């Protein structure tokens, strides 16, 4: 075989080599590889998680005690309220996409970036992990949110030393999160020194030396935290965990701890892999698709194209969600405007109806709805013996069937209906729809994973699929839909605080060192350790843990106790402002940027939600400045910290990323011949045992689960709040103040309530309210939100994160996964006696951004 590019530098970035043949064929399921499946989730959950009752922060006093704000400023930006949409995408999405791309980057630069977005010879979108088609891809293979993310990454505005000289940390913290992000790209390494009020320039050499000095001064490597964002590609992620483990700790929390940790914790012991079991092509063969705890119209818009194609192929869709969302009602595909046969209908009609049956469930009771669906299947089987359940699959592949049936029989319909708010007739109708079909896919996202019962709810979904034999065959399977574009890939690369022994052994064999064996901190435990003063150094490879994690002011208290914070980033966010004695901003290249090392253009790779690994190669000339690649920054920190003690050739890894991939290929199962396979157009599929009905659990079986259910009783006047995302944001990155599908414009400090709940509390439409959360006798407060009546179940309410994260207690986590319960917060809402909340922020509440 031809030498890998790592052994032949002339091959690095070779376009022709990247167009090699042998691409996976559409619908081909056998080309999954033969290596063991990659998995990094505990089958037993996290029984050693810290269960202490943590002291509640002073959420009201903090904004007066600390001039640098940890929460977004409270000033309103001028609410304009319209009617919620019933159709997602359409011509508006097309116009919005162009406006964002051209507005921030200029027409030529923005257009060039969009045309290479998600293309086989381009770069991977940073806004979601939805897969790209194996074969043909459209000219515009992106959604509106992808255009926003790309425009943000490719921003031509500069946040340079002059900007930081003009704006103190206090002033920056009084800017909105939108204005912080939209200020531009950070161009130079910056530092806040002890007692400093501004970020100041620092050379790369001094910055790396400072990191090494502070890390090496620690009494133990476990006194440092190394956080990771799911946007980080495979190559820098692998190097990052290698650096951290050579340093001597497994303290590698990441954003997955806060989102889909519940998925992995549920799937690993039941199917043997903490990932989904479907491919994109399975959607086109599916007969029934269940969407639960997910809003694809805003969070994963490209998924709507797959759902539309599934509908045109005859699929039925069941949606289970507390809010009635536009993307789950109708979809106008922007691609149809370029099809003369569909253009007029797309322009004038309502588009494709997505949902056939909508079950508007109360928050945190999805588990009981899924049990109701299974009870309905058992009733249908009793009437039609041998025609509903897949007895052959159950007998050959599963264990625990009898225990499941007993658990279902012990759950009454009265309890299901009372807790969920969904009628028995509607649940039975959905069950009968499932009963008549065999090819079933269930999709879920953080609406499920961040519930108190998140792990158990997902395991009930798995139970339903086992009853139908709907795993491991075309058109059927389990589909956790992840958010960050490479959050699944980072876990595959070893970004995990609880590494498996086999992984550590392979690292030791490849790099000739003994990795640390003790478990490290996940995100919630890391925050607690910082709050206890046990961790003086915090390093973040991307992300915004301050705003992404629960209990914002608790996290801020923890971060103020640090000696050094290190932020590897492209743009400003609030997490860069709340620090301890010292802080570093280390600017890195974005996905859109051309990355040249040693005279050759490099590329990285990402793994999507369905286990496809593909290359990502920037196309835009970076802004003038001193930004480095993530790989170069990680290697620089490693060299400065480890010196001659390291067994890794960090320089070689930086000069040619194929060297990193050769290491990965020898360490990570499924990545053999990595450099060869990643150059196939469209990439390659990682091995997936459950997709082939090879259940790699401890007993080799697909395991039914007998899940518990804890009934949560509320006090009078209490509601259950869920945090949600607006249409103009990705995770904690805020692009603008609008949420047009829900009819909200130019405002984020809003809370959605049912009209009945508003009337009972004397809350008028657009009236100002304060919100208080209640947990273990503690209270947390958030002031000045505008009440909006909305179609949401009585007893439930919703508000945007990160604004509402201050209400989520750090100690409130999902069973087993230790994921913050941002989708289950007990609150009271009280009106405030002041004018209707549509006034704009005063000049004292805003800080203008130059240009």
What does this structure look like?
By secondary structure, this protein is α/β, with parallel strands linked by helices. Helices cover 32% and strands 16% of the residues. A hairpin with a 2-residue loop joins strand 26 (729-730) and strand 27. Helix 9 (204-216) crosses helix 28. The longest helix has 18 residues, at 366-383. The chain is globular and about 75 Å long. The model is unreliable at 1-7, 9-30 and 837-851 (pLDDT under 50). Keywords: 4Fe-4S, Iron, Iron-sulfur, Metal-binding, Molybdenum, Oxidoreductase. Belongs to the prokaryotic molybdopterin-containing oxidoreductase family. It holds the Pfam family Molybdopterin. Residues 1-17, 26-55 have a biased composition (Basic and acidic residues).
Main sheet characteristics: 6 strands, mixed
Strand order of the largest sheet: 6-5-18-17-16-7
Helix content: 25-40%
Uncertain stretches of 5 or more adjacent residues:
1-7, 9-30, 837-851
Global Rg: 25 Å
Portion in beta strands: 15-25%
Dominant shape: globular
User: How many angstroms does the end-to-end distance come to?
Assistant: 55 Å
Structural class: alpha/beta
- The strand count comes to 33
Summed up, the helix count is 32
Compute the average pLDDT.
89
